[in-house]
Amino acid sequence: MKMGKTRYFTGIILLAVLLAGVLTACAGSRKLSDKFDEAEVKAAAEEVIEILNEGDVDTLVDEKWNTVMKSMVGKDVLTGEILPIVEELGAFEAFDKEAVTGNTDQDTDQEYAVAVIKVQYEKRKAQFTISFDEDMKVGGFFIK
Fold it and tell me: Which residues contact 122 (CB under 8 A, 6 or more apart)?
């Protein structure tokens, strides 16, 4: 029963993370803004995933998260809820398919770049959706 509760709460937390970015719920995907470089967004998303794979929550929160993400998904949440999911996937093997789109927060008109990256792990694949603000800080993070 404990594993069921953990997955339930993890799902709730991941949903909150997605909503914290206020990206996919507020507007549909569109062309990437000229304020972003697609290759840079892909590289930044891969770097975030690599840091997560290493379990370095300090770097993620202190250097990569924007202010909203820091308030919603701190080090305790990453350590207690997100890292166990990544550990269940097994060892990292390779980045697979990647796509980058743009998005705009309808409330603030702030533009975001959204990277969707499929990753092959030892036990199964995972899909990461990572949103970046104009400062290339993570404003939304979701694992599927």
Answer: 89, 90, 91, 92, 93
